[in-house]
Amino acid sequence: MVGGAATAMAASTPSDAQTKRTTMPPDPAAMPVTMPVTLKVNGKDRPLSLDPRTTLLDALREHLHLSGTKKGCDHGQCGACTVLVNGQRINSCLSLALQHDGDAITTIEGLGTPDKLHPMQAAFVRHDGYQCGYCTPGQICSAVAVLDEIRAGVPSHVQADLMARPQASNIEMRERMSGNICRCGAYSNIADAMADVAGAKA
Amino acid sequence: MKFTEPAGTNPIDRMTVVGRAQDRIDGPRKTTGTAPYAYERHADAPDAAYGWIIGAAIAKGRIRSIDLDDARGAPGVLGIVTAGNAGPLAKGNFNTAKLLGGPEVDHYHQVIAIVVAKTFEQARAAAGLVRVDYDRASGSFDLDSALKTAPLVGGDSNEGNKAPAADRVGDFEKAFAAAPVTLDAAYTTPDHSHAMMEPFASTAMWKGDELHIWTSNQMIDWGRGDLAKTLGIAKDKIRFMSPYVGGGFGGKLFLRADAIMAALAARDVGRAVKVAMQRPLMANNSTHRPATRQRIRIGAAKDGTIQAIAHESGSGDLPGGGPETAVNQTQLLYAGPNRLTAMRLAVLNLPEGNSMRAPGEAPGMMALEIAMDEMAEKLGMDPVAFRVKNDTQVDPQKPDRRFSQRQLVRCLEEGAQRFGWSRRHAKPGQVRDGRWLVGMGMAAAFRNHINRRSGARVTLQSDGRVLVETDMTDIGTGSYTIIAQTAAEMMGVGLDRVEVRLGDSAYPVSAGSGGQFGAANATAGVYAACVKLREAVAQTLGFNSADIAFAGGQVSGGNRSVPLRDAAKSAPLTAEDKIEFGDLGKTFQLSTFGSHFVEVGVDAYTGVVRLRRMLAVCAAGRILNPKAARSQVIGAMTMGVGSALMEELAVDTRFGFFVNHDLAGYEVPVHADIPHQEVIFLEEADDKANPMKAKGVGELGLCGVGAAVANAVYNATGVRVRDYPLTLEKHLDRLPEIA
């Protein structure tokens, strides 16, 4: 069971604990061992020194303060943390930052700004493709990548003919977006926003 | 401003800004990731330490011992808070179970400790070194067996839905026994989880004896009050802020453990602490929509006139909790002289049951509207016609009380016409499209509207811009935008001249977000403040006539026209007021109505259900922003699809917890599940509701849609399933023969 780190642990005897402490005295003041990594985030080299356990998601949110990328589940179940790595979308919570030395990372902040929205961001506003806004950056990063994937001919589960070139149809986009959960239920509007950008009919 | 008489003509009626399908003003921030949520206050709390929550691994019992030594010695650890060192804590007025457990444990994943470290990774690792030894006690976890001896209990959802333990009109038993056509059927709905996308999250920082907390909460004043009560400090020592809330659906109505643990941890370690509850803890740690066991009996004359209707529901909760008020709508929705409603409440030691979007009506309508479908079939009537036949314009229990407005029949008939309902085959299992069995279903939608006091402060700034401040929250509902629209309409300025600040206890107390009461009441509060500001402007500019107009940035009256901004030339003008309500809400029944129409395909081979088309028609007073309101309705329809087809917290009745406690195990609809959705709003303005003439709509879209899906599945297959969710194994072995 994942919840509650203590759930699976049996009580250790005092002598066990004592032994451990004498053999490996922890230093409460110690900062973690860190390793260097350079991420190219939104076009800029960002050298960091990170605890190797740091996910790409937490490197962006907690170390670079790019908190547009959201943490919804930290387990690859919701898609809120979707970013583009070298042009492909990934769940940044399932990836350690150190795996991405030299990689080009595009986050929601790199797509556009409030004064200069990316066409997909503008389409989300126009079609009301969001409500609470928390899954939205992930939806938008995914939506941008989905249209790229369709253009690149990457096949999907809902294609009748896997050898044919996929089209930006409603069901094709919905299938490919299904790793991004929106509990507010803006799906129908997101499909409209994507169709608008793709130049297709919803 | 006290609203005691039906609203006359007022500036909102111009509807030059209000009522328009305006893009959300918070859209550019939300779509660029620049709207800061509770865990993202880097500028406000730059050195925040990280908290990791530990939840109880038993449902009921005691912590015999908790060994923190290794965790305390782990790298980076700054402190650990448990019930043992937290100091005395009270229980909030809105909490059934205490938020920090220990040594007694009240439910599974109740918080028992928080480990605080300099980094997130250190806190998580250290939490793994905490050892807890429990004394597990036996508990009551099985609703069906607990209901056998459960007493009748009345209840109030806190969100505008209440029902007495039992309520009778006429003689139900006698009329039911005499009725020529009857239905007596049992329905079940499972426990549901809010599963909002932003976890429970808080950043807490003490400044001396003052606590600043950025959190994710729907009701600023409730949360602030309960945080003060829990900590035993004065309410005015807390600044409670939730400018952006990543979804709530009722799960964030109340103070939750993230807030209290962040506050305790920050006090313990002497610096700001931020906490986001780990997703796998959320379902069991927080509240959920309780499962129900419902029985519905309907007796009608052969012409379809209902003569007797009874709705009984049983649910469970922790000791001190309340029932899911699933019978409430049955008191109001259909006519009939002989009526009975009753609720039973069992004591369960599962996590706390409480409000989730449309508490009461959501599961109640899921059952009632299947029953209506079944009854229509028994009568040989069309389900739309059967509902129309039993419409009422008065409260069926108190015929002197009229509905302020009730356009249910129009919703039903217009929906049927637009959806192509006449093409539906009354006999189920008749339509095939390749491998798909195709069916149509419908249901009525019903949800009460409620009045809540709501305040706001409005300032005309020296540059002529208007600033609105209220502690109202925007949980995705569009509050920022409709409040800006209201102020723009009232002050006669463009939307781009209005700034809205929300979700801060430094601002006047509002209705808050819940029970679909937010939009109408919060904007009515802004209306009240604007009326005062208009008076101040008029006085400052020397208009003595009451007959002045605010439009185009000008104030005009008689033969004078003055720029609005001139009123604030020497100093900003501020006005504060609140909307309060007299008895109109008691004299009249304020409710919202709608209809849902659904077409499904059921795979003849696998039993998989796929949605093909969805339509909702809503009559809910004036629609303040049709774009945002439509989104509220389609979002609710989507949640309704979830409750119809997939959502279910699976109960482990041995150990007393919800097994599928994350977003992989608790399935909610995804893109592929939801087709294009259509929403129609009937033109309406309810002058008995408030000066905005608006009512709630955010939950109406959920009420009934689950049953419309279930009825469509029945129409497709001929197999009636009365136990939600309608997963394929419940009808697979009874599907029509594959020709």
Automatic annotation (TrEMBL), chain B:
It is an enzyme of class 1 (oxidoreductase). SUPFAM superfamilies: CO dehydrogenase molybdoprotein N-domain-like (SSF54665), Molybdenum cofactor-binding domain (SSF56003). Gene3D superfamilies: Aldehyde oxidase/xanthine dehydrogenase, a/b hammerhead, Aldehyde oxidase/xanthine dehydrogenase, molybdopterin binding domain. The keyword Oxidoreductase applies. Its EC number is 1.17.1.4. Residues 32-138 form the Aldehyde oxidase/xanthine dehydrogenase a/b hammerhead domain. Pfam families: Ald_Xan_dh_C, MoCoBD_1, MoCoBD_2. GO terms for molecular function: iron ion binding; xanthine dehydrogenase activity. InterPro entries: Ald_Oxase/Xan_DH_a/b (IPR000674), Ald_Oxase/Xan_DH_a/b_sf (IPR036856), Ald_Oxase/xanthine_DH-like (IPR016208), AldOxase/xan_DH_MoCoBD1 (IPR008274), AldOxase/xan_DH_MoCoBD2 (IPR046867), AldOxase/xan_DH_Mopterin-bd_sf (IPR037165), PaoC-like (IPR049648). Keywords: Oxidoreductase. NCBIfam families: peri_hyde_PaoC (NF041671). This is Xanthine dehydrogenase YagR molybdenum-binding subunit. It comes from Sphingomonas pseudosanguinis. The lineage of its organism: Bacteria, Pseudomonadati, Pseudomonadota, Alphaproteobacteria, Sphingomonadales.
